[in-house]
Structures are given as structure tokens and as C-alpha cells.
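Support request from a user on the community tier.

User writes: "When I paste my C-alpha cells into the form, the page sometimes reloads and wipes my input. The last time it worked, I copied everything first. Here is what I submitted, just in case something in the input itself triggers the reload:"
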């Protein structure tokens, strides 16, 4: 096997584009230097459109989970009632974080593979007026469900305009269009290694005016993750602690890439990759975990009924060095997940589908070679033929 040839098709981390890797080799400078100030100025205004907000996006050195924790420790303190709407592993992570801070945590646990039902959540909150914050997940990466978080935020605020509604956007931002201000979301977070196609290590946190008021009224905001510290420093073009400067360099190059493509084109590309992937599996008679209406543009989960998911992944790895992800926790061996986010193009989709067909055959699934590829090609042509210039 050609040693360096690795194809990472897991739902984060994604591969890093060459220009981004080159940008990250720039020299370190002190965190109060003009260079660091300048790079922050370059990044700051350009991040907002990916969240759909006019607020500054705070950048904290940490993995995605640090942004989830920031959204807990800043908003609520010991004994406060909060609701977590959990649709899988990452939804439930909010519950675990809330429990670790001894909040009075309520959880609505939705069957894995399903999206939450907005009315059910709204009714729950109606019956529990003590709840001050609601946590939900945009794209539940463990199942590939895209939840109607915007609809939920609007419905909850119609009920109680003081409620703080928090969305984990880790595998959604820069993949699925997110309109924080329009939807009335109060905190939206993500991490660098998903849609932003960077290495892991930067957490992003956007905060609404309503959430800032709640945060300022909160007596215990922790230390490192106290968002008022990060906000006050960022206003001055700075960070309260030594920044992940290498990732800032990379992010500047990522924003160049995404702006060059066009933000709406970024979202269209993800939808196209989702639709190609799903069409291929359907043509091959392979069972998908999530229905069309709730399928995420960034990750597709497959739940085989007549072949072994783990063996399939092993063949794919051994023959092609293509990595797809296992399921998580209860779904570890029963599903696999294909990441099509960040640095991934429709050409990559055609590649992996063709390899999937070989792996399916090797694990004993009866398929017609090429049927999945053809279905993906047809979707590609349907969605792009009008843009062919004569
Ligand atoms: C990846 C992911 C996380 C966790 O991010 P880490 O960087 O591993 O801490 C949280 N939520 C969602 C939805 C994710 O996809």
C-alpha cells in the first residue's frame, strides 16, 4: 500500500487542503504582536456569515467539546433547570456536561436516527416553566440527522422570550446553512476540524445579545471558558490566553478557499455530496439510517441489514486505505458513517462509491457493480447540467 495515500471520509477530522497546510507553517509571533493582531482582524469579520450572525465569533483553543462546555458553564450554574434535547451521542454529551456542573438537567431523549419533534419539546417546556436554557444539536454526527433547530428556537421564543436556546453546530457550520440571528439562536458553537477543514484545536462560539445578558448575570462562569474574557479581548483584537496562532493562519486560508468558492456554493456542494451518496446506497439496496427529510449534508449513516458493517469498513481500509467511521456507543458495530464534509468534493464521492461497490461485493452483498456509481453520476448531472456553459 502506498503509505501516504489515505482517504479520510469520517465525519471529522476532515483532510486539510494543501494551501491551508502551507499557511500553517508560518512563523509564530507573540500574542500581543502586530502580526497576531492583524491575523485576528483578517479572520474576525469573515467568520460571521457562516453562523448567520452579526455578532463576533469567539475563538477558544480547545476541541469542539470545549465549546459545548462553554455553552453550559457560562449560561447556567448549580441547581439551574435546563433541558437537553438529545438525538444521539453528541446531544447526550450536553447532559453529561450539565450533570458535571450539578445543574437540574432534564433530557428529552429521541430514538437514534430520528430528529426531535418541535411540538414535543415546546410542550415539555410549557410544563416546566423553571427551565432557563434549552440545548440541542444541529447535525447529530452519531446518526447523520439534521435537526430543525431553527424552527425550535422560533417556537420556544414565541413561548418565552427569555429562554436561552443553544445549538451544537459542530458538524453543521460551513456545511449546512445556519441562520443564527434570523432563527433567534442564542449560542451556536463549532470546532475547527469539521466544516472548516482545519486540524482539531479551535472552538468557535457565537453569542446573542440575550445570551450575553444571561451570561453577565451568571455568578459562576468558570475561568478559562469565561466567555466575557474572550469577548473583551476579541473586541481589542486579542485573545485572553495564548492563541492557537497556527490554526489562525490556517483559518485565514480556509476563509479564502470558502469565499472563493462562494458561501452558497459551499452549502450546495454539501447537499450535492449528500444526495449523490444517498442515491448510490439506495440504488445498491443498502439501508440508510435516516429518512430523506432529516438527512444531514455532512454525514450519512448506513445501517446494513444483509452484510457486516465492521467487515465492510475493514475491507475498505485494507484494499483502498479509505476510512469511514464506525457507529458510536450502542451503534458501534451496527452502522457505519460516511463523512462528506469540509475538504471533500463530488469527485471524492464518485471515488468512494466505486470503492464501496467493491467492498460490498467482497463482504458478500449481491450487487450490480456500477449501479451505485451510475446513480450518483445521474444526481450529479441532474443538479449541475444547467450550469454547463456552451
Ligand atoms: C465532532 C463533534 C463534537 C465534538 O468535538 P470534539 O472536537 O471531538 O470535542 C461535538 N458535537 C458534534 C455534533 C460533533 O460532530
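"...and here is what came back when it finally went through:"
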Amino acid at each position: 500500500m502506498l503509505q501516504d495515500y489515505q482517504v479520510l471520509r469520517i465525519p471529522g477530522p476532515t483532510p486539510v487542503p494543501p494551501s491551508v497546510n502551507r499557511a500553517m507553517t508560518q512563523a509564530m509571533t507573540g500574542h500581543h504582536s502586530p502580526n497576531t493582531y492583524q491575523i485576528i482582524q483578517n479572520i474576525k469579520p469573515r467568520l460571521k456569515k457562516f453562523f448567520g450572525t452579526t455578532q463576533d465569533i469567539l475563538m477558544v483553543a480547545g476541541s469542539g467539546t470545549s465549546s459545548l462546555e462553554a455553552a453550559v458553564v457560562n449560561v447556567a450554574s448549580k441547581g439551574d433547570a435546563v433541558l437537553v434535547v438529545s438525538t444521539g451521542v453528541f446531544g447526550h454529551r450536553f447532559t453529561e456536561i450539565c450533570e458535571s456542573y450539578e445543574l437540574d438537567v432534564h433530557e428529552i431523549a429521541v430514538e437514534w436516527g430520528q430528529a426531535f419533534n418541535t411540538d414535543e419539546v415546546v410542550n415539555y417546556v410549557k410544563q416546566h416553566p423553571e427551565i432557563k436554557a434549552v440545548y440541542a444539536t444541529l447535525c447529530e454526527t452519531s446518526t447523520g440527522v439534521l435537526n430543525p433547530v431553527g424552527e425550535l428556537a422560533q417556537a420556544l421564543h414565541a413561548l418565552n422570550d427569555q429562554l436561552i436556546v443553544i445549538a451544537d453546530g459542530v458538524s453543521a457550520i460551513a456545511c449546512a446553512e445556519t441562520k443564527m440571528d434570523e432563527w433567534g439562536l442564542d449560542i451556536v458553537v463549532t470546532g475547527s476540524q469539521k466544516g472548516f477543514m482545519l486540524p482539531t484545536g479551535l472552538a468557535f462560539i457565537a453569542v446573542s445579545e440575550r445570551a450575553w445578558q444571561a451570561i453577565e448575570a451568571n455568578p459562576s462562569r468558570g475561568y478559562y471558558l469565561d466567555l466575557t474574557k474572550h469577548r473583551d479581548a476579541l473586541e481589542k483584537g486579542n485573545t485572553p490566553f495564548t492563541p492557537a496562532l497556527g490554526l489562525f493562519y490556517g483559518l485565514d486560508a480556509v476563509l479564502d478557499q470558502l469565499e472563493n468558492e462562494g458561501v452558497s456554493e459551499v452549502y450546495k456542494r454539501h447537499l450535492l455530496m449528500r444526495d449523490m451518496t444517498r442515491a448510490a446506497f439506495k440504488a445498491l439496496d443498502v439501508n440508510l439510517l435516516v429518512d430523506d427529510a432529516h438527512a444531514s449534508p455532512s454525514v450519512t449513516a448506513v445501517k446494513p441489514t444483509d452484510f457486516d458493517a465492521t467487515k465492510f469498513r475493514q475491507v475498505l481500509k485494507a484494499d483502498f486505505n479509505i476510512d469511514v467511521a464506525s457507529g458510536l456507543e450502542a451503534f458501534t458495530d451496527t452502522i457505519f458513517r460516511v463523512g462528506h464534509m469540509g475538504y471533500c468534493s463530488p469527485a471524492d464521492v464518485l471515488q468512494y462509491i466505486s470503492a464501496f461497490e467493491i467492498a460490498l461485493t467482497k463482504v458478500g452483498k449481491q450487487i450490480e457493480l456500477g449501479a451505485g456509481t451510475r446513480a450518483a453520476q445521474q444526481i450529479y448531472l441532474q443538479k449541475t447540467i444547467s450550469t454547463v456553459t456552451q
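Agent notes: The reload is a front-end session timeout and is unrelated to the input. Residues 263-283 form the longest helix (21 residues). Residues 55 and 206 are 7 Å apart (CA to CA). Escalated to web team.
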